[in-house]
Amino acid sequence: MEDGTTIAAARETILEPAREIPVARRTQVLVVGAGAGGYPAAIRAARHGAEVLLIERHPVVGGTGPMSFVTEFLSCENISGILREVQQRLAAHDAAPAEFLPEYFNLAYDPEMLKLVILDMLVESGVDLLLNTQVVDVIMDGDAVKGVIIENKSGRQAILADVIVDASGDADVASRAGAAMHPREAPQPMMMLCRMGGIDWQRLQAHAHANPDDFSKLWGVPPNVLDGAQFVHVTGWKSLVLQGKEEGALPGTFGHHISVFGATPANLRNGIGYLYAVQVLNRDPTDAADLTGAEIEGRRRARDFLPFVKRIPGMEQAFLIDMAPQIGVRDSRRIVGDYTLTRDDIFAETRFDDEIALKVYRGPDLKGWVRHKPDGSEGGKGHDPADLPLSVVVLGLPYRCLLPAGIENLIVSGKTVSFDNEAHQRIRLMPECMAMGEAAGAAAALAARDGLPPRRIDPAAVRALLAEGGLNLERAKVRLSEVRQTLASRGINVVMP
What we know:
This protein is α/β, with parallel strands linked by helices. It has a domain at 190-323. It contains 14 helices and 19 strands. The strands form five sheets. Strands 3, 4, 7, 8, 9, 10 and 18 form a seven-stranded mixed β-sheet that branches. It has a five-stranded antiparallel β-sheet with strand order 12-13-14-11-15. Strands 16-17-19 form a three-stranded mixed β-sheet. β9 (144-152) and β10 form a beta hairpin. α1 (39-47) runs parallel beside α4 (111-125) and α1 (39-47) packs parallel to α12. The longest helix is centred in the middle third of the chain and has 22 residues, at 288-309.
């Protein structure tokens, strides 16, 4: 082929001719990814005076909430900062409870309204947005990331930035920049969730109250009542799942229970909920073919599972509204940062001078224990956290975990920061990803303002900005005693300090 792409058949590769790529934009702070680790970073950086561009590969913002139907902010014991603002804005639209205390644990919300609330916050903060845009490469100057190459409807372009925040969910920018990654272990299952209508919530919870041994003590009923605030989902039907397995009526690998999520006040009134049951095992979200296979398998198995759902009392008339636009991914790349948080740090409640987030972890102090087992056998005897002694600890996340070792001008935010495998299993949920995003945005704004690489800014200055914006970094303000009392009231064996 003349003056164009040529094929080197012997190596089965394509030789693409060199070409000039237009610089579409220069900005102070570039945030890649508008999920839980990204939109708080963009909002924070803009509110602190930085010029911010946010890139998102989907046409909507919000990440796994609207895209994967993760319709609860799980583990909100330190609700503050942007998460508290999101809750209040959602409540104003009847899309979340009006009152939410930290010891309620899980904040249920409407994912459709979350898209709009976050969009409002971004626009009001002055963030520029570029949707339907994929990062395909990075621009390097030695060990420093100077920008990214993007592809979208306008073609292939370059964006240059003083500081880049990688909130892609897969550490895509860090990976392309050559950052070291922690070894991948057996991945936690991916999940395909379904939005269902026609749920008789009263009948559903009446059955749970009448059969308490068939349901989890930890997740709502029984013996409590779904109220859209403190009690927002039901996990159980263990005997029904066992019956389905024995009959061969459940397609593929299933755990030991089913969950129905997202019981907001509006959903309780309108008979809507989110079905959590279909797992897809051993898939790599950074491999296009593997991820495609997961989407196909998840959707086909979810369809095949729907007739079984009608066996649940209260779901006899339930019907599918839609499946999540994207399969839910728990595991992906994790950078090697300037510090790697470990599971021992968590249970020792290690304090760090550069803490930029606090999280309450409530779970068993068992080495090797993971919440979502890679083999899909979640919820079995000896594994269900409701049946194990639970420790309740406050852990701090160091700023250094967000800095990829050996790479400059780049901050990583979200579930791909520098954790060991067991720490990652315990700290990858949306509330802590949002707190990391706030920290990344504050740090990026400071770095851009002072003309310093993110590694050289003062973490104390980042902490001061976070506190100014309402993010709680004081352990004494975390309502640990109330959290322990709530767990104990549900019959959980709480390990006291």
